[in-house]
Amino acid sequence: MRLIKKSETENLVTAVSQVSEYTVEELKNKRSKAILPWVKIGMWIAREHCGHTYEEAAGLFGKHFSSCYAAVKDVELERDYHMVAINNVLEAKKELDSAVEGEEIHVS
Predict the structure, then answer these.
(1) Domains (range + CATH), the chain
(2) Where are the alpha helices (DSSP H) in the chain?
(3) 72 Cβ partners below 8 Å, 6+ apart?
(4) Residue range 4-41, pLDDT digits in tens
(5) What is the pLDDT of residue 98?
């Protein structure tokens, strides 16, 4: 079992938003052909790098788990083509995660 912090999940969607230059709202709600590849990459990263289930990964982007299953397969088939974007999103997420980890935690 892998423990997934809420901030890691939020940071993934934010990282995809930063790299793609689409807002989080657009990534979650729009059905544009221009946005869809970014959503697919985000769901693939959620599955392969963050350990989310298909349902959880799909939910991050407002999609059904069956859409996530198809997206993961699509990205796998074209992974070499998407590798630069994937690496850019992973790097942005890493920076966001480290910024959250660097914050002080106060317990009352």
Answers:
(1) 6-97 (1.10.1750.10)
(2) 6-20, 24-29, 36-48, 54-60, 65-77, 79-101
(3) 40, 43, 44, 47, 48, 54, 57
(4) 666 667 899 999 999 999 999 999 998 889 999 999 99
(5) 87
CA angle 57, 22, 75 (to 5 degrees): 45
Alpha-carbon distance 36 to 27, whole Å? 8
pTM: 0.85
Mean pLDDT of 63-92: 96
Are residues 71 and 62 in contact, defined by beta-carbon separation less than 8 angstroms? no
The Cα–Cα gap between 67 and 65 comes to 5
Cβ(40)–Cβ(74) under 8 Å?
yes
